[in-house]
Amino acid sequence: MSEDDLDLRSLSDEELVEQMHDDLYDGLKDEIVEGVEILLERGWTPYRVLTEALVEGMRIVGIDFRDGILFVPEVLLSANAMKAGMGLLRPLLAETGAPKVGKMIIGTVKGDIHDIGKNLVSMMMEGAGFEVIDLGINNPVENYLAAIEEHQPDIVGMSALLTTTMPYMKVVIDAMIEKGIRDKYIVMVGGAPLNEEFGQAIGADAYCRDAAVTVEMAKDLIARKHNQLARGA
Predict the structure, then answer these.
(1) What torsion do the CA atoms of 204, 209, 215, 220 make, to the nearest 10 degrees?
(2) Which residues cross the membrane (predicted)?
(3) 69 CB burial (10 A radius; 0-12, 13-18, 19+)
(4) Is residue 188 classed as helix, strand or coil in its secondary structure?
(5) φ and ψ at 179, to 5 degrees?
(6) 71-84 burial, b if ≥16 CB within 10 A, otherwise e?
(7) Phi and psi, residue 164, nearest 5°
(8) CA-based angle 92:213:48, to the nearest 5?
(9) What single-letter DSSP state applies at residue 110?
(10) DSSP letter at 164?
(11) Are 109 and 191 in contact (CB under 8 A)?
(12) What is the 3-state secondary structure (H, E, C) of 51-102?
């Protein structure tokens, strides 16, 4: 029986969710949208659809991406399918006040117009339940500071793909220090030419090798920050 012949409505909830994991893995946008619609019709809450069908599906994609089984083009297809499903869920989640894991602003730094890695991180983070404000490419320090002020995120993410634009990340961090706001935010940096040492040298909280690692690291850092605040540290 081919994918085309499969009637998603004939599946039980459990089978449908498993099928959606497979469809996300294969980057099948229309099937994901249909699956989301069916689960909502069956009385699933938007948050349950998000976590059990979409986030869990993207978690599987993320693991295989990290382990080199899936590659960027395939993950982008999965992320686009996820995005289509999120398109239906986002307004419903806003209405029901579903819990957000955290909020992140992310952008490629000034002088750099590469955005595939950044887009992937945005989509994976959104897929994990974060609210993501994507500033796009070629962002001067003013863009970051304005976005921080407007959105009050938990995380500030910066991306660079050129060795010449990497140092600009330090400019942004230094500006945050100067304004006395650096310690209020988790700063995460990523991009092909970066490494752990560079992240530490510029004073970032974390260097993220790839999108899958970013999600895990972000959750971990937010949990730690909340624990510190709870302890009054």
Answers:
(1) -50
(2) none
(3) exposed
(4) strand
(5) -85, -5
(6) eeebbebbbebbbb
(7) -75, -25
(8) 25
(9) T
(10) T
(11) no
(12) HHHHHHHHHHHHHHHHCCCCCHHHHHHHHHHHHHHHHHHHHHHHHHCCCCCE
Q: How far is the C-alpha of 82 from the C-alpha of 77, rounded, in Å?
A: 9
Residue type, 149: E
Residues, the chain: 233
Q: How many CB atoms lie within 10 A of CB 174?
A: 14
CA distance 60 to 55: 9
pLDDT per residue as tens digits for the range 88-108: 998 898 787 777 789 999 999
Q: What pTM was computed for the model?
A: 0.78
Taking the domains of the chain in order of start, what are their residue ranges?
7-99, 100-233
State the CATH class of domain 100-233: alpha beta
Which amino acid makes up residue 63?
A: I
Of 114-118, 136-140, 219-223, which one has max mean pLDDT? 136-140
Burial (CB count within 10 angstroms: exposed 0-12, middle 13-18, buried 19+), residue 158: buried
| 228 touches 201 (CB < 8 A) | no
Sequence-ordered list of residues with C-beta below 8 angstroms from that of 101, at least 6 positions apart, any chain: 128, 129, 130, 218, 219, 222
Give the separation between CA 190 and CA 161, rounded to whole angstroms. Answer: 8
Q: Cα(112)–Cα(48) distance, rounded to whole angstroms?
A: 38
What's 182's DSSP letter?
A: G
Class of domain 7-99: mainly alpha
d(CA 201, CA 167): 10
Average pLDDT over residues 9-16: 97
- DSSP count for the chain of H helices, then E strands: 10, 5
